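Researcher: Here's a chain I'd like modeled. Treat it as a single chain, no partners, no ligands.
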Amino acid sequence: MPEKLHPNIEKVAAVLGEHGVPGEIVVFAEATPTAATAAAQLGCEVGAIANSLVFDADGAPLLVLTSGAHRVDTGLIAETVGAAEVKRATPEFVRAATGQVIGGVAPIGHPAPLRTLVDTWLGRYEVVWAAAGHPHTVFPTSFAELVRITDGTPVEVER
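Model: Modeled as a single isolated chain. Structure tokens:
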């Protein structure tokens, strides 16, 4: 990794260390803002990318870590969390909740813990890749590790 990292990457690296996560953060020369671009850079299946998607659940942030192979069914997620409405968050809402920008949102390293759901589909992969706080970064992890480090709830994200 470069000598001086963006503060968000440093924060994510610190949290990974606190949780004993052994995977190293990978820094790409170009941004990988989508599951497809990240998978292409890594040479893995798009389903092994853990997208960190922030939703507005009745005004509260909700982080859904979903396989790059899925589209989140917001109606199902609303039923799952008992919300009247779950909708895609605005970039400003995402930044306020996570301190990070869309395309680089990590599952951890936020100003405060976020209620987190983890797509059970990610359990099909030995290694999954998640953003590390910046659109140029990812780190290797596993489904079980994502659930552990986020205190997340495993769920189905699409019907």
